[in-house]
Design goal:
It is a single chain. The protein is mainly alpha-helical and about 950 residues long. The chain has 35 helices and eleven strands. The protein has a nine-stranded parallel β-sheet with strand order 3-2-1-11-10-9-8-5-4. Helix 22 links the parallel strand 10 and strand 11 (about 650-655). Helix 10 (about 320-330) runs antiparallel to helix 12, helix 20 (about 585-590) packs across helix 21 (about 595-615) and helix 30 (about 795-805) packs across helix 31 (about 810-825). The chain is globular and about 85 Å long. It starts with a helix and ends with a helix.
């Protein structure tokens, strides 16, 4: 890029940052007008006083001002306090909208100002890089055929925002975008302001809290919202851009990129710990998927009808198209659609019949009939008939644009829209298997068998074609439900295609038998079958989920044991020789801390990959990352590049959870940029796997250092979390953990069992509670001690850590995630939460330990990175956190006050629904302010 171009871009960046400040100020002023309108000038004055005091404290901490600030907050009457909480919470919603809009603006501004320069992290930069490295077209084809990414939406209860509020946010975002329109007249700007004032007023008078927990079907519809609003259009545009770039740099090839990027879902299929997810709910989920897919195709075909007005008075359509229309007239009775009256416009006639067939596809009674589409390939073939005819009379442009987009959508979404994964806890399978085998007199107590005996028995059962269940036997409700799930999967594959459900995930996989049990159940309903010639047909794969540190350590040996079982090996061959394996970031983090979890996940990835390679099995790793830092959360492109490149060969799956969905896929521009960066990362990782750059010796040394750091971190973490007898008291009393469970943000309970044991607490509320109380402990604790123990004041070892940060992607990713957590944590506010702990000795002892570790970790991070302040490497996020803190702080102090009052009441067997409501409002507000829940 030329000096002039750099200068122009820099100036442009300053200009766009000014526009962000303009939008935030504009929306803040509108909120101020709403506050005056709703609560009078007094309300606005109180909010402003609290904001100014909080801002002053952030600029310079003065103890006297701090006490005045706390007194002001604690002296608010309940009526005013309620409105003040909502004012700060809604302010964050507006700031988040402005920041999301600004991300889109920045990309557009870059493209305008940079001219022909290629943006870093774009699809074009990835393809340009391949070309500049002289990578031949055949190798590029190999890279593209080998990459695969499936982003899986989950229903984990971390999305605190209601759907109706998201709709308001979308309208506000679209209106704020209009502020950039230079052609707006003065009157149009005034009308825009009036409209935004109305939208913010509606937001103020809309309840942000759910009055009940969402049902599973509510959650399914929430997930489908992103397909309806953004993903159905954005996903094909990512493919289109990739093909454009390939054609630009490799023009000698005609490119059609294979389907490397798809979405999947757990919502309606994940029954682990959620008793509401029954087999019938899974079936209803699949129907909703199909209904949305068909309705989107109908929208696109209606648009094509408007475009394809070509007349046979002017063009000659293909005989193939004419024959197709004749066949439709013979087999398709038009009930939902009127026949196009102009006989000279054959494309519109054909599209009318296609609409009728799509409508009939919803009707299971017509299955197998030519009156409906029985497979998406039939719809695709009709579209190709139109495509070939259009090209016959040189209407290439519409064929290459609108029609090509629809063809890609059919290829990507079919009639099932996205794959639905089913998940269940391994113990549920063992219990069901025990009952079934006992009733068939095969073994009286399967659960008591040794692992070796279980594996031997299950292998034998897989080879035995005889059924294990009988319609003449009665089973317990849980066992019958277990069997119903498999029957539903079989039925779904027959109705929606095998792609609708092909992975069955097993939570808490601890042994090979946990995986074989699912294979035996699949055999029982016809999803796993050995033919007479010995070949195996398998349309449902057992996918182990290794979650705890011990399970990650055991994973390579478990997979080797399975690879050596002949019939299981044949089942893998039936799945294109690919085996999917899921790695859990949340429970491993809760179990061993952030440093050890990241290290053990890296080790498991490499060792399982080596095992697969030894047996000729390609592995598709499913990374169960949460949205929050304490659960493996990070930007999508970084999460891809954080993996050792040679482990991505069989494809990658990554969970997209909670607030991640709205932050990444709420707006088309941001969704596109996120998926573009993911594509760049995929291509880059595949290139690194094919042409390694890192020297093996250096990486082996760094791995050895990382292992020693991990070992120290594990001891430090578990000393506090598991071995300190007072820690659980400290956690429960100094965080809003009990109250988080009362926030109606998910259908799933916050505990796996009705138990107060730490082991039964889910990782999501564990992280959520620490985030709310501003400790963010799971995302950084023990790192400082581990790094200090290794370096020990030795400058040469510190220099090695600096080199690792510069050249070792794993270590850099770890350090940068630690920085993000430290920046969002605030120990001054966390100390206020600790005052809720009744035992002062416990409070002082554990808090001082946490505070000491925080300071040590911050010091070590700055020494390793060479930065002056935490997050100097990402100034945009650093500035965002700095600007948000003065607005989050009042909510935190009010939450402490409210929690104390509520808990005092409940200790005397009393309650106050309004007080609880205010607590929940502060939880929502802090989540919006920190842009993190769980």
């Amino acid at each position: 890029m030329s000096e002039q171009s750099v200068s122009t871009t820099s100036a442009s960046r300053t200009s766009t940052n000014n526009l962000l400040r303009r939008d935030v100020r504009f929306l803040g002023n509108i909120l101020g007008e709403v506050l005056v309108h709703q609560g009078g000038r007094e309300l606005l004055d109180i909010v402003e006083q609290i904001r100014e005091q909080s801002k002053a404290l952030r600029a310079e901490f003065v103890p006297e001002l701090f006490e005045q600030f706390k007194t002001k907050v604690s002296s608010l009457s309940p009526e005013i306090r309620h409105q003040v909480i909502r004012a700060f919470a809604i302010y964050f919603q507006l700031v988040n909208i402005a920041e999301q809009n600004h991300r889109i603006r920045r990309k557009r501004d870059y493209e305008v100002s940079a001219g022909e320069a290629v943006q870093r992290g774009s699809i074009e930069s990835a393809i340009q890089d391949l070309k500049e490295r002289n990578i031949e077209v055949g190798d590029v084809q190999d890279i593209l055929s080998g990459i695969s990414l499936e982003l899986v939406m989950t229903a984990h209860p971390t999305e605190a925002t209601r759907r109706v509020v998201l709709d308001i946010h979308k309208r506000i975002a679209e209106d704020v975008m209009q502020l950039d329109n230079p052609t707006l007249t003065y009157r149009e700007r005034e009308k825009l302001k009036e409209k935004l004032l109305n939208e913010v007023l509606i937001l103020w008078q809309t309840d942000e809290l759910r009055d009940r927990k969402p049902t599973v079907i509510d959650e399914v519809r929430n997930g489908l919202y992103y397909f309806d609003e953004t993903l159905f259009e954005v996903l094909p545009s990512v493919y289109e851009e990739l093909e454009r770039c390939l054609t630009k740099y490799y023009p000698e090839e005609h490119w059609h990129v294979p389907a490397y990027l798809r979405f999947g879902s757990w919502i309606g299929g994940d029954r682990d710990g959620n008793p509401s997810v029954k087999a019938k709910v899974t079936w209803e989920t699949l129907q909703l998927h199909r209904q949305l897919a068909i309705s989107k195709y109908e929208e696109k075909i209606h648009s094509l009808m408007d475009l394809l007005s070509f007349s046979t008075n002017l063009v000659e359509v293909s005989e193939e198209l004419k024959d197709s229309i004749r066949s439709d007239r013979e087999h398709v009775e038009l009930k939902c659609v009127d026949l196009w009256r102009n006989a000279k416009e054959p494309y519109r006639i054909k599209l009318g019949f296609m609409l009728e067939k799509l409508a009939n596809t919803r009707d299971e009674a017509l299955k197998g009939s030519p009156m409906r589409y029985n497979h998406p390939e039939e719809l695709r073939e009709d579209l190709l008939v139109i495509d070939r005819s259009l090209r016959n009379h040189y209407a290439d442009y519409v064929a290459d644009t609108d029609l090509a987009t629809l063809l890609r959508q059919v290829e990507l979404f079919g009639f099932h829209l996205m794959a639905l994964d089913v998940r269940q806890h391994s113990k549920e399978h063992e219990n069901a298997m025990s009952e079934i085998l006992s009733k068939m007199h095969i073994v009286s107590d399967y659960a008591s068998l040794s692992e070796e005996e279980k594996t031997e028995l299950l292998h034998k059962l897989l080879n035995d074609p005889r059924p294990l269940t009988s319609g003449h036997l009665d089973y317990s409700e849980s066992t019958q439900e277990c069997l119903d799930v498999y029957h539903t999967i079989y039925r779904a594959q027959q109705e929606f295609g095998e792609g609708c459900i092909s992975s069955y995930l097993i939570s808490m996989t601890e042994a090979a038998s946990d995986i074989l049990e699912v294979a035996v159940f699949a055999k029982e309903v016809g999803l796993f079958r050995q033919e007479a010639d010995g070949t195996v047909r398998c349309t449902l794969q057992s996918v182990p989920l290794f979650e705890t540190i011990d399970d990650l350590n055991a994973a390579p040996a478990i997979m080797k044991e399975l690879f050596e079982l002949p019939i299981y090996r044949k089942a893998i061959e039936a799945r294109d020789n690919v085996h999917e394996i899921m790695l859990g970031y949340s429970d491993s983090n809760k179990d061993g801390g952030v440093v050890t979890a990241n290290w053990e996940l890296r080790v498991a990835l490499k060792e399982i990959t080596a095992a697969g390679k030894a047996y000729g099995v390609k592995l598709k790793f499913f990374h169960g990352r949460g949205g929050a830092l304490g659960r493996g959360g990070m930007p999508l492109n970084r999460s891809i590049l954080a993996q050792p490149p040679h482990t991505i060969g069989g494809g990658i799956k990554i969970t997209e959870q909670g607030e991640v969905l709205s932050s990444r896929y709420f707006m088309k521009g941001i969704a596109y940029r996120s998926l573009e960066q993911a594509t760049w990362a995929l291509v880059t990782a595949a290139r690194l796997a094919k042409y390694p750059q890192q020297e093996a010796e250096a990486e082996a040394e760094w791995d050895s250092i990382a292992r020693s750091i991990s070992d120290t971190a594990l001891n430090k973490y578990q000393d506090l979390i598991f071995r300190d007898p007072d820690f659980l008291t400290f956690f429960k009393e100094s965080t809003p953990l009990p109250e988080v469970g009362e926030l109606n943000i998910g259908s799933r309970p916050s505990k796996r069992k009705n138990s107060d044991r730490f082991e039964d607490l889910r990782a999501i509320p564990w992280v959520f509670a620490w985030t709310q109380s501003r400790y963010l402990l799971p995302a950084w604790y023990a790192a400082g001690t581990a790094l200090q123990t290794y370096a020990g004041g030795d400058e040469s070892k510190l220099a090695t850590l600096r080199t690792m940060y510069e050249q070792f992607p794993f270590f850099r990713s770890l350090i940068d995630n630690l920085q993000m957590a430290l920046a969002k944590a605030d120990l001054l506010i966390a100390k206020e939460y600790s005052l809720m702990i009744k035992d002062q000795t416990v409070r002082d002892r554990i808090f001082s330990q946490i505070e000491s570790e925080y300071n040590l970790t911050s010091t070590l991070i700055l020494q390793i990175t060479g930065q002056d302040e935490i997050l100097d490497n990402v100034p945009v996020i650093q500035e965002s956190i700095r600007l948000r803190n003065p607005y989050v702080d009042p909510l935190s102090y009010m939450q402490v006050q409210l929690l104390s009052e509520l808990r005092d009441l409940r200790a005397n067997d009393e309650d106050d629904p309004e007080l609880l409501r205010e607590v929940l409002l502060t939880i929502n507000g802090i989540a919006a302010g920190l842009r993190n829940t769980g």
